[in-house]
Design brief:
This protein is α+β, with helices and mostly antiparallel strands. It has one domain: Oxidoreductase, molybdopterin-binding domain (Sulfite Oxidase, Chain A, domain 2). The chain contains four helices and eleven strands, in the order ββαββαββαββββαβ. The protein is globular, with a radius of gyration of 14 Å.
């Protein structure tokens, strides 16, 4: 996997064979975009009205790294952490949003990375379980066995 050329937005560590640095994989914006952007049009409990989020599917990132785990530990820039079951990767519903309404998200706007589910598409996503997994200001994911 190539080295990032721009600022690193995401670092992935843990149980995965593909890396581009010692014991980790680092992604800049272009690398994340190259994994394929998906749009999710949805409302959230944190924003007003329907928003359009865009970013690579979480599954695309884990597939690129050939990651096989049971849990992802997602960590934000302020060290807030949450565990996301690997089944959320397998069912291919979550994206790692890098844009909101066509614009990159600043840290003030919950960026640069935000785990987003299609909340409006299914009642199961409108629960505290999925809301708690929707970590913003994400910068590190640890793949746990």
């Amino acid at each position: 996997m190539p080295q990032p050329e721009g600022p690193v937005l995401l670092t992935v560590i843990g149980d995965m064979p593909v890396t581009n640095a010692s014991g980790r994989a680092e992604f800049d914006r272009e690398m994340l975009e190259d994994l394929g952007m998906r749009e999710v049009e949805t409302s959230t409990i944190w924003t007003d009205g329907t928003q359009v989020f865009a970013g690579p599917p979480l599954k695309a990132i884990m597939d690129r790294l050939q990651a096989k785990g049971s849990t992802l530990r997602a960590v934000a820039v302020n060290d807030y952490a949450i565990e996301i079951p690997f089944s959320d990767v397998s069912d291919d519903t979550a994206i790692l949003a890098i844009e909101r309404n066509g614009e990159p998200m600043s840290v003030r706007e919950k960026g640069p990375l935000w785990v987003i589910y299609p909340y409006d598409s299914d009642q199961r996503f409108r629960t505290e379980t999925y809301h708690s997994r929707s970590i913003w200001q994400l910068d590190t994911i640890e793949v746990l066995p």
